[in-house]
Design goal:
alpha+beta, Ubiquitin-like (UB roll), DNA polymerase, domain 1, 3 domains, five-stranded mixed β-sheet, two-stranded antiparallel ribbon, 7 strands, 32% helix, binds FE2/S2 (inorganic) cluster
Length: 246
């Protein structure tokens, strides 16, 4: 390849030489087009030597991806072996069972987020005031920041926003999720997962709510961005869509 800093007449000389050799059937049968598609054919043009002769070299093969070994899951200690501040708990979240060992002071939100790596609830105030962390326990909205995980494990069914959609495509979203998106019922989104879960709890109990019903059902969910008009529109649109779907 010609040195980009070489004088123009030197580059021209190199190009002429390549063209001559190509016409003459020389060793460097390289055209300008091949320069451009070289990568596509698995070949690249090597550097020109002192004499300006081009050579074809194969790119070095990609190294195989490094596989990080996944450590085998460690068995949880038996409940009798735990210190007094720890509990072993079986949680049912979005229809799936999880066995966890938790400190008795840990909230459900902490266990779901830090121990189980879930992202189904946001943390706002962490003191049961804003509703950002709302999940459903047996169909009822609760603040997951204020529920101790160690008090669960008695067969309760926990549901987060992750349990609503069937997939990641728009058409796979739950009608409530889709309605919030279509109506623009969010700005920063901090409150949205909690609002969606409170809306789900409302609409599964009351498919045709009045505005007072909606205000009452969402009264525990604070939107710092004050998107309430669009949030209510989202709820009514979701109610319409869910009724149509039957
Ligand atoms: S983060 Fe739980 S109520 Fe605010
Ligand atoms: S959209 Fe920002 S807090 Fe509600």
């Amino acid at each position: 390849m010609a040195d980009e800093h070489a004088p123009k007449d030197e580059i021209k000389e190199d190009q002429d030489q390549v063209a001559d050799e190509s016409r003459e059937g020389g060793s460097a049968r390289v055209s300008r087009r091949q320069f451009l598609v070289g990568a596509g054919t698995g070949l690249v043009v090597g550097a020109a030597g002192a004499a300006g002769v081009l050579t074809l070299v194969k790119p070095a093969p990609e190294p195989p991806p490094v596989k990080t070994p996944v450590p085998p899951p460690q068995p949880l200690p038996a409940a009798a072996d735990l210190p007094p501040t720890m509990r072993r708990v079986s949680l049912n979240i979005n229809g799936k069972g999880y066995e966890v060992v938790t400190d008795v002071r840990q909230s459900l939100w902490e266990v779901m987020t830090y121990d189980l790596g879930m992202a189904g609830a946001n943390l706002g105030c962490d003191r049961a005031q804003c509703g950002a962390c709302t999940v459903l326990i047996d169909g009822k909205p609760v603040n997951s920041c204020a529920v101790l995980a160690a008090r669960l494990g008695k067969g309760q069914k926990i549901m987060t926003v992750e349990g609503l959609a069937k997939g990641t495509r728009v058409e796979d979203l739950h009608p409530i999720q889709r309605a919030f998106w279509q109506e623009g019922g969010l700005q920063c989104g901090l409150c949205t997962r909690g609002l969606i879960m409170s809306t789900y709890a409302l609409l599964t109990q009351n498919p045709s709510p009045t505005e007072d019903d909606v205000r009452e059902a969402l009264s525990g969910n604070i939107c710092r961005c004050s998107e309430y008009p669009k949030i209510y529109e989202s709820v009514f649109r979701a109610a319409d869509d869910m009724r149509k779907k039957g």
